[in-house]
Amino acid sequence: MKTIEKEVLAEIVEKKSKFIGNLFYIENAQEANSKIEEIRKKYHDARHHCFAYRVIEDNRVTERASDDGEPSGTAGAPMLQLLNKNELVNVLIVVTRYFGGILLGTGGLVRAYSQATMEAMKKASLIHLEKGEVIKLPVSYQNLAYLQYYCRKNDISILQTNFDKEPYSILEMAIDKKCKFLHEMEEKQFDIQKVEVLQEKYIQKRVQENA
Fold first, then answer.
1. What per-residue confidence (pLDDT) applies to 206?
2. CB 86 within 8 Å of CB 2
3. Which candidate in 59, 84, 113, 149 could, as Cys together with 75 as Cys, close a disulfide (CB 3.0–4.6 Å)?
4. Contact at 8 Å (CB) between 176 and 155?
5. Strand segments (E) across 41-192
6. Looking at 24-28, 140-144, 207-211, which range is the least confident one?
7. Under a CB-based contact definition with an 8 Å cutoff, are residues 171 and 135 in contact?
8. pLDDT exceeding 90 applies to what percent of the chain?
9. CA-to-CA separations, 147 to 78, 137, 138, 173, 175, in angstroms, rounded
């Protein structure tokens, strides 16, 4: 799955109607609703603000789409289909339409809303996501340097290190790195029997400019 790095905007004109696509990164459905309201206020004189979003909540993808007064299935559904096809999550696309006086028909509307969505996606920088975990690992001061070295080399994030009564580090890593990581730590005398999984989450893998 993928998401986007930051908000992008794209515009197209179809038979004098202007379609403005705003593509947002969102964390949850509540944020999506807030962004939709922002667009309604920003383009308050427009006829339609159609939208679609996909967001990960509780490790499940929630989807929603709206035609906002356009004929059923001509806007929100094709926009959502494009988000699905491109495996995008935690994204909201809102396409605002200023009517130009010429009817487009259902086929023309589907093409226009789809094109506005695609143009916005073309401009976006993509962040690839993969399943990961946040884990708590017991670590001694003597072993910390090796842990830091290993994590830098293998693209594992150290979120926190604590040297109180029971020293530990909190790490974020991709699932496919976990077995090798635990094996390496065990060889270095880390107490992997006390490793605790604190959270399952999707984590960023890398940023790539969309072609």
1. 54
2. yes
3. 113
4. no
5. 48-57, 60-66, 91-98, 125-138, 157-162, 168-174
6. 207-211
7. yes
8. 86
9. 47, 10, 11, 13, 18
- Tens of pLDDT, residue by residue over 127-156, are 999 989 999 999 998 999 999 999 999 999
- The whole model's pTM is what? 0.80
- Burial class, 176, CB count within 10 angstroms (exposed 0-12 / middle 13-18 / buried 19+): exposed
3-state secondary structure of 10: strand
Q: Which two tokens stand for residue 24?
A: 């947002």
- If phi > 0 it is left, if psi is from -120 to 50 it is alpha, else beta; for residue 189 that is left
Q: How far apart are CA 123 and CA 118, in angstroms?
A: 9
Contact 195, 136 (CB under 8 A): yes
Name the pairing type of β-strands 48-57 and 91-98: antiparallel
Integer CA distances (angstroms), 23 to 32, 89, 190, 210, in order: 11, 12, 45, 14
Amino acid at position 176, single letter: D
Alpha-carbon span 119 to 32, nearest angstrom: 20
